[in-house]
Amino acid sequence: MLCEGLWALLTETSAVVAIIGTPETRADGTSGVFPVTMPERTPMPALVITQIAGGGDNTFDGASGLRTARIQFTAYGANYLQTKRLAKAVRDRLDGIKITLADEDTTEVDLGEVVVEADAWQLAPFEYQTPIDIQFWFREPITGGTSL
After folding, report:
1. I need a surface site. Which of 8, 18, 87, 99 has the fewest CB within 10 A?
2. pTM, whole model, 2 decimals?
3. Rounded to whole angstroms, how far apart are CA atoms 140 and 148?
4. Which residues contact 134 (CB under 8 A, 6 or more apart)?
5. DSSP string computed for 7-19
6. Nearest residue to 4 (alpha-carbon basis) of 95, 71, 65
7. For residue 71, which of 100, 98, 91 has the smallest C-alpha distance?
8. Strand partners, 120
9. How many angstroms separate the Cα of 79 from the Cα of each of 44, 126, 129, 130, 135?
10. How many angstroms separate the first and last alpha carbons of the chain?
11. d(Cα 61, Cα 35) in Å, to the nearest integer?
């Protein structure tokens, strides 16, 4: 699955790890990269990965295996600079990427392209955020469906 593979990739990307840390160096014992939501009181910086849209490509023979997904990577930090550095590390790794991910499906990513990057701030809890939306075009094995 795409998000699983992207999670694994980012938790092994040296520029991301240099900012977030590792399970051995973080106070919460996690990678600091979370699917969909971040646990309360997570030490900063941290990263949340959320799929916000997606679709497939069908042919007259059924599903082709070609898919798109818009994934939001939200960098969180205790200050603006920390958040922007994390967002840049994610952007630098994923913008323009073409890779076969090390997930259980060995998902083939044909392209990742940044479509939106913004800044945000939240008073309670006091944290800075930089969401980056990346559109991915990828292939994954077809596991179901019917053909006529």
Report:
1. 18
2. 0.88
3. 21
4. 70, 71, 72, 73, 94, 95, 112, 113, 114, 115
5. HHHHHT-HHHHHH
6. 71
7. 91
8. 129
9. 9, 9, 9, 11, 27
10. 27
11. 34
- pLDDT digits (tens), the chain, 148 positions: 899 999 999 999 999 999 999 999 999 999 999 999 999 999 999 999 999 998 877 767 766 778 899 999 999 999 999 999 999 999 999 999 999 998 888 899 999 999 999 999 887 677 899 999 999 999 877 666 544 4
SS3 46: strand
Q: Bridge partners of 109?
A: 99, 138
Q: CA separation (Å) from 120 to 84, 87, 125? A: 11, 12, 13
User: Around 92, how many Cα atoms within 13 Å sit in the side-chain half-sphere?
Assistant: 10
In the chain, what are the domain boundaries?
2-139
CB within 8 A of 79, min separation 6: which ones? Answer: 128
